[in-house]
Amino acid sequence: MNSKVIELTVKLRLALNSNLSLNSKFDRKQYFYPDLSKGNQISQFDISIAEGGFIDVDLHQEFGGGHRKFGITRIHMEEDTGKLLHSINGA
């Protein structure tokens, strides 16, 4: 686990007014995607690093103006699986 990821996740938790979980858990999700050669991905879901929270947003007049609060369900970490790149000539 990259320690910088943990640090940034804790900062995000503070910014989103979330509750830091005392315990968290990682799961290995098994599935096949062409860009996931090892066949699994490490992710959090059941017990994530932070739960709940909200973000306050001032809406632009174009969107009706005023103030709105958006709820946050959880903050979780997961492994980036990669991506597929396609060239025009197929090479």
UniProtKB/TrEMBL annotation:
GO terms for molecular function: ATP binding; glutaminyl-tRNA synthase (glutamine-hydrolyzing) activity. The keyword Ligase applies. Residues 1-87 form the Aspartyl/Glutamyl-tRNA(Gln) amidotransferase subunit B/E catalytic domain. Keywords: ATP-binding, Ligase, Nucleotide-binding, Protein biosynthesis. Signal peptide: none annotated. It comes from the Eukaryota. The keyword Acyltransferase does not apply. Pfam families: GatB_N. This is Aspartyl/Glutamyl-tRNA(Gln) amidotransferase subunit B/E catalytic domain-containing protein.
